[in-house]
Design brief:
565 residues; eight-stranded antiparallel beta sheet; globular; Heparinase II/III-like protein
Length: 565
């Protein structure tokens, strides 16, 4: 079957999916209309309108030009318009009030729907079309002067302004968009954005930058988005879930699959670049994304741009790749540990290793340095706690490659004490310590230590070496954070708290379904349950292993499916 025929089949399937969703949603909308009461759900009015409008405009739909939809679409369009504030903005109810960036997200979708309505809605849907255009006219001044909160908001603002230029013309939209675009795209050479959000904001940046690139003929936007989408080939766990263990945003640690923005972006860029690898990722999105009405909307408006190339690559699930090699992230390494970790350690090294069901991530710039998954068995993190001036778990600044399968993370920690302040600094405080300029105190008694983790990657797991030659008997503690949905067993396990177990000796077995992770190398050289300032995840199984320096110890992880050994 050629690509065009496949596209036709995909279109028909999307239509049937939306028809099923409308059949489910219709009784709820009727009930709300009858009772006059409705639970507030962010963006629901526009998404309901989209669901009805794409089916109303689609000739192959059972709802094509169905007059029964007209009054409901008009009511929903007016309800949507009523969410707009006098400023022209909308509000993200639980967070951003009177928000230009959330108005930009909304405007991009409303403008895309207006384009469909203008082309295919016909005179019967004119009131719906006019209401959408009225929203966009009111939003225009707000977007021409509005600001942003986060890095990705700049590209969403630019894309909304591009849509407004398409509809209304004029050059003011482009001028404002390039005030943001001229700041430069915050992307690494391998495709990572500042927010490091593989499940959410990578998709957002790619989807909205396509509009920017297309309308403004801005090639850097197209190239950057393509780079991100190619990077994602190496950021997938078994079961088509996305690597989220080092995200700087809301998807941190969540089990996520591709959303509809990924679906659309992969189709658009696979076609634009005629790239077989992006086409293969589009196939992943085909089977994992919700495939809601946004996907049908794009197939209807730009079918030739959504068409995948004839050649589709075979995605590999066997690779080792180190992103950000040589990069050094800022991490807490000296007393006082001022402020939290850098929320977005842009470009911090990430090591990815896949061998079929085995998926390993090593991460610089954060305390949870290792992630291990084998099928359904997940160790969400492994961190190395250090009994050193309250540092908690060490966050390593980088990852160095020592050999083909051997990597090292190392940090030098510095501690100290603080001398007295001169009278001129203390007298105005009248003895109140917190009102004294304590940052001016002399650092005295400075001491240092070095600790490292080495990681050997294997076909069935990994070996982790913990090393510190410090002779002072300092406390170290590995914390392996396992999914609470599995079971951890072993003769050397001792309960040390509600969510903690110590592997005092020997090995332990973590099992989720038939997938297993065996850990060998238990130790009980000190009796601390946790290191100071190292928080324990109460919703996980936390297994600790305790050493004293000088230390040169190994934890060996082997993965298998029960019955396949």
């Amino acid at each position: 079957m050629n690509a065009q025929a496949v596209g036709h089949e995909e279109l028909l399937e999307l239509i049937r999916l939306q028809e099923g969703k409308l059949a489910e949603e219709w009784p709820r909308m009727l009930k709300e209309q009858e009772t006059g009461t409705k639970m507030r759900v962010q963006g629901e009015e526009l998404h309901r309108l989209m669901l009805m409008l794409v089916l109303y405009c689609q000739p192959k739909s059972a709802y094509y030009r169905d007059r029964e939809l007209i009054s409901m679409m008009e009511r929903m369009a007016q309800a949507f318009l009523n969410t707009q504030l006098p400023s022209g903005n909308v509000t993200l109810y639980f967070c951003n009030i009177d928000s230009p960036p959330d108005t930009a997200f909304t405007t991009h979708l409303a403008a895309t729907l207006a384009q469909l309505a203008l082309r295919d809605g016909g005179p019967e849907a004119a009131k719906v079309t006019d209401t959408l255009l009225e929203f966009l006219r009111r939003a225009s001044p707000a977007l021409l002067r509005g600001g942003i909160h986060t890095p990705n908001h700049r590209w969403v603002m630019a894309s909304a302004l591009a849509k407004l230029e398409q509809l209304f013309g004029g050059d003011e939209y482009r001028r404002r968009a390039f005030e943001f675009l001229n700041e430069g795209l915050d992307i690494t050479e391998y495709g990572e954005w500042t927010e490091r959000s593989n499940a959410f904001y990578n998709a957002i940046c790619s989807y909205y930058l396509y509009t920017v690139g297309l309308v403004f003929d801005h090639k850097p936007a197209m190239e950057a988005a393509s780079r991100t989408l190619r990077m994602m080939c190496y950021l997938m766990h078994p079961g088509d879930t996305i690597v989220t263990e080092y995200s700087g945003r809301q998807d941190l640690g969540l089990i996520c699959r591709m959303d509809d923005r990924y679906y659309v972006a992969y189709h658009l860029f696979a076609s634009y670049d005629q790239d077989p690898t992006l086409a293969a990722m589009a196939k992943v999105a085909n089977r994992t994304a919700p495939r809601g009405s946004l996907t049908l909307l794009h197939w209807m408006l730009e079918p030739e741009r959504m068409q995948l190339p004839d050649t589709v690559a075979e995605l590999s699930d066997s690779y080792t790749v180190l992103f950000g090699e040589g990069n050094r992230a800022r991490v807490p390494d000296r007393v006082p540990y001022v402020g939290p970790l850098v929320k977005h350690p842009h470009g911090a090294a990430v090591l990815r290793h896949r061998q079929g069901k085995l998926s390993i991530t090593a991460m610089a710039g954060q305390p949870d340095s290792l992630y291990l998954q084998y099928g359904e068995a997940r160790m969400f993190g492994m961190k190395l706690g250090v009994g050193w001036f309250g540092v908690g778990a060490a966050a390593f600044p980088g990852i160095a490659k020592l050999a083909e399968d051997l990597y090292r993370m190392e940090i030098e920690l510095e501690g100290c004490y603080f001398g007295p302040l001169a009278d001129e600094y203390t007298k105005p405080a009248n003895g109140s310590y917190v009102d004294m300029p304590n940052h001016l105190r002399e650092r005295v008694g400075v001491v240092k230590m070095t600790v490292a983790m080495e990681l050997r990657l294997l076909e069935d797991g990994m070996d982790v070496r913990v090393v510190s030659d410090d002779p002072r008997g300092l406390y170290l503690q590995a914390v392996c954070v396992f999914d609470e949905g599995g079971a951890l067993t072993g003769e050397g396990l001792v309960d040390t708290g509600r969510a903690t177990k110590r592997l005092s000796h020997g090995g332990a077995l973590f099992r989720a379904g038939n997938d297993c992770i065996r850990v060998e190398g238990g130790a009980h050289e000190h009796d601390e349950t946790t290191m100071r300032n190292d928080p324990i995840n109460p919703y996980a199984i936390n297994m600790t292993v305790n050493w004293i320096t000088p230390a040169d110890a190994w934890l060996r992880f082997r993965c298998f499916t029960e019955g396949d050994e």
